[in-house]
Amino acid sequence: MAIATINPFTGQTEQEFEAHTEEEVESRIQAAQDAFVRLRSTTFAQRAEWMRAAADLLEQDAPQLARIITIEMGRPIKGARAEVLKCAKGLRYYADHAEEFLAPEPLADPSSVGASKAGTRYAPIGIVLAVMPWNYPLWQVLRFAGPALMAGNTGLLKHASNVPQAAIYLDTLFERAGFPVGAFHALLIPASRVEKVMRDPRVKAATLTGSEPAGRSLASIAGNEVKHVVLELGGSDPFVVMGSADVERAATVAVAARNQNNGQSCIAAKRFIVHADVYDEFTRLFAEKVAALTVGDPLDEATEVGPIATESGRDELEGQVADAVAKGATVLTGGTVPDRDGWFFEPTVLADVTPAMRLHLEEAFGPVATVYRVESREEALEIANGTTFGLSSAVWTNDADEEEWFVDNLDAGAVFVNGMTASYPELPFGGVKDSGVGRELAAAGIREFCNLKTVWKA
Ligand code: NAP
Question: Model's pTM, two decimal places?
């Protein structure tokens, strides 16, 4: 895959970039190693000052950065601006909380282990490789980089090949903010060159956000090298609507939960599982609201849904929908590729989905929703849990017992009740099953790439 900005709204290549040579990669790895030696001996206060300066730079650069996001991957400009500001907030959150999250933990009774003093402390580990996707080109990277640098680690970014301008911006962000040169750099390399970086002894761990095949590939190399890895992979999140729910509100939120970021979010609700008591009302409202979405130029402030980021992604979605329709799915709205330039797909709602259809088990990475009718909470749960994914989930109910039951039994990294899944710096984020391993954000996220060191003194 060429390293290039190809505007999904026009299909035109705007700019191509040369991959880094082996010598350039080597010098960046060494710079990250040298920066680690310096960074690990700085104080939390010093790193927090630099981190806040990076947040200031993001805010200052927000208009230009939002435009880069929109042109490279098609996110409507309003959402792109919100992404930049969310990143600034995330960096400040770790500037404020890293020291508390990584505070030493003394054992209350050291004599129980025959010591005068014992406990644990968190130490940084060194260079962490971040392999990142294009769908939130800034947020995915910075939710890793903020905690990693605050812990005293350094980072090397291998960004998706279709967002090179975002990668190039991130390449200098932290040194502009005051961090040692080399503390965070981007490597402009294709996926085929990730293995060599992962096997470099100076690289201690990796985090990958992306597809399941990419995650499996990197994790197997990490396993072979005995290096820690965090994986944030795909999802096909259920959105369960029970009879007691506020159906109007659920339908309104369902539209945003499915179509945010042009439907290309790992934590988008993808499968809508609706109790028979409210099925007709919910599907009517949902399909009406989806049909009313404004689809168009992502640089236009009024646009709610833009194009799919890549031509192959659009073709994949078209194939999944065609397969479902051929096998008997009912199209409630959308369903086709519109007759216009760019890689658009109409926001779509499909009913009567069966296990024979690809969309029943595969992730739909675009604005395509599937709706299921169920007669009981047990049946809802069976469909909700009946995939290989387990990223997040949502349940809509006003019955306290039902709420507890779903929170207990949904096999997912998160359950959102009467709302849609979102990521917050304050809450851990990650999946179970094939959706990944490990957690990002909150205290859990910063501790992932630390050596939890036990200290015992006679
Ligand atoms: P992708 O094709 O897996 O690409 C993600 C990153 O991995 C890119 O930098 C890509 O580089 C690289 N890559 C691809 N194959 C690789 C390999 N064999 N070894 C090492 N690196 C490899 O995924 P995507 O299409 O960009 O992103 C969509 C997927 O990401 C969806 O499944 C989505 O659900 C998931 N996602 C998950 C989360 C989460 O937090 N759980 C968040 C966002 C997205 P190239 O671009 O050079 O190929």
Answer: 0.98
